[in-house]
């Protein structure tokens, strides 16, 4: 543990000292920390699975996911669904569900032996996109603003849309639960989600409203506003768990409501501390990913898993997005760019770790392998071709 902390700290300092030149080379902090995780993974290869499959690791992943969901939901700009809500709704509520369905069907073909519930868990791991490790792509001025806005909003909300589906699938697939049928799983998941939505809404509204009120009466400092915002996802997550709700949904809804109720201009400044915390947690997850990659690559895996992940990165995303955006105001080049620029990152890593902890036996190892291969494949595929796609985009 101490060795891991030292490695992360050294790599982070090295990246911070060279952040500007490394950014020009598109070498981000997550990428550099992965190397440290790989190095540690080689020295602790025999104990990686034991370290990942613990209650402490599970709760840490859950809390990190709750914070990231809150950050994603609260950081969307230009309205709750961005400046073009119709296009975003096409991506989130047409393309995303279709992608999950196609991923499950591909799993039935390429991953025989896995139940459909396990395949749905894996689909939830490999489908969501995440621009956290590739933020420079959506900041690239060569990408039309309309495309960048759509990708930013999708990246902010898709993990919140997928997380309830993941929890439902895990409740059905995990051998440690008593949910033997979809209806039994739904009977547990739906009340949990409703409680979470209630808690998230109440906490988000109360915090945003009281912060607005206190700010008008000059009762808060800039620092205290940032601290209050950091407490929001923790309070909503813990509050939902206390009454049997889903902490992830509560944190996501809390961020969504805060983004709507809180006065926008000061809210952007208050997010800075939470963004920094999210950045550090993201880096931590990439370190864990490096170690998990060593474990998977040194274990037994099938070519079928690799092909499945390759298809998840291409057909599973591209086809549904292109179909969902038919007759939209986007040009064909824009649609193709949105469909192609779908990097996988922190969301897939956290979902994969949760699946590895909740599932058992071969199902757990399959979920972890799918996470590793889809993220590695995304780093190679999107890293190598993103610039080509951007250069060929329609600048108008």
Q: Secondary-structure map with pairings?
A:
Elements (H helix, E strand, L loop, with lengths): L1 H16 L1 H6 L4 H15 L4 H5 L2 H20 L10 H26 L5 H11 L8 H4 L6 H29 L8 H35 L5 H21 L4 H15 L2 H34 L5 H11 L1 H10 L7 H9 L5 H13 L2 H31 L5
Helix pairs in contact: 1-3, 3-13, 5-9, 5-11, 5-12, 5-13, 5-17, 6-7, 6-9, 6-14, 6-15, 7-9, 7-17, 7-18, 9-10, 9-17, 10-11, 10-12, 11-12, 11-13, 13-18, 14-18, 15-16, 17-18
The name of the CATH topology is Na+/H+ antiporter like fold
Q: Give the strand tally.
A: 0
- The gross shape turns out to be globular
CATH architectural name: Up-down Bundle
Could you spell the SSE succession in H and E letters?
HHHHHHHHHHHHHHHHHH
Please give the largest β-sheet. none
How many domains, as an integer? Answer: 1
Helix/strand structural class: mainly alpha
- Give the strand content: under 5%
Gyration radius, rounded: 20 Å
The number of helical runs is 18
**Top CATH class:** Mainly Alpha
Mean pLDDT: 84
First-residue to last-residue Cα separation: 51 Å
Helix content: over 70%
Task: Report the uncertain regions.
Answer: none
